[in-house]
Amino acid sequence: QAVLTQPSSLSASPGASASLTCTLRSGINVGAYRIFWYQQRPGSPPQFLLKYISDSDTQRGSGVPSRFSGSKDASANAGILVISGLQSEDEADYHCVIWHNSGWVFGGGTRLTVL
Amino acid sequence: QMQLQESGPGLVEPSETLSLTCSVSGDSISGSVYFWAWIRQPPGEGLEWIGSVHYTGATYDNPSLKSRVTLSVDTTKSQFSLKLSSVTAADTAVYYCAKSSGNEFDYWGQGTLVTVSS
Fold first, then answer.
1. Chain-chain contact of B46 with A34 (C-beta, under 8 angstroms)
2. Is the pLDDT of residue B102 over 80?
């Protein structure tokens, strides 16, 4: 079982909100981890969006608008990236990452389609 | 503004060693809190961290690559390098170099496609 699991795709309408999940493998407690999120538009390298460990310990990357936010769902053992007020430019791949066992571990990425 | 640029062969034969270099400009490669990373992305797939190196030579690498990885830094040239030995078609990917300050990867190169094929 992969350390981090993301749905392969998600669709949402312009102006709506989208919640992208990053589920940690059983036995790895989401509460103990800082979750990093990256956005990757087609043909471009990933860009850092935000890091989240708690509502009082979160930080967006330079120039990232406040409509991008993070949270956790302890019952699902998952980190969540919430994008509100979806815009066409938000159509991209989104990757979650954690530091685990002395290494960086990426999820498989979610392709968000805005239509 | 820091910039990173990957360079190296775009085609490597199976069983050979893949060698890439990342040139850093706009800031010192010898920043005490900076780690310099290699991350790859096979076509149509997700990202995989390969490893990170500090200017002192300290390294962390992905155990899944089974010790095929060698990372190094040349502070005189403001470059860091990746060598990946015994490559197979599964190593075909876009290879990115990136900088972290112990946390997020905040600067990335544009990436370079390396194809493993005879």
1. no
2. no
In contact, B83 and B60? CB cutoff 8 Å: no
Residue of chain B minimizing CA distance to A96? B47
Mutate to test the interface with A, among B4, B22, B40, B47 (most CBs of A within 10 A): B47
pLDDT in tens, B32-77: 899 999 999 999 999 999 999 999 999 999 999 978 999 999 999 9
Mean pLDDT estimate for chain A = 97
Give A9-40 pLDDT, tens digit per residue.
999 999 999 999 999 999 999 999 999 999 99
Give the residue-averaged pLDDT of A35-63: 96
| Dihedral (CA of A29, A30, A32, A34) sign | positive
Contact in structure between B26 and B3 (CB atoms under 8 Å) = yes
CB contact under 8 A, B105 and A107: no
CA-based nearest residue to B20, from B83, B68, B99, B90:
B83
Q: How far apart, in whole angstroms, are the C-alpha atoms of residue B17 and residue B108?
A: 23
Mean pLDDT score of chain B, rounded to an integer? 96
Residue B79's alpha-carbon distances to A63, B1, B35, B97, in angstroms, are 28, 16, 12, 11
Residue window 31-60, chain B: list those with CB within 8 Å of chain A.
37, 39, 45-49, 52, 60
Q: Which residue of B has its CA nearest to A104?
A: B49
Which CA distances in Å does A33 have to A92, A104, B47?
24, 12, 19
Phi, psi of A30 (to 5 degrees): -60, -30
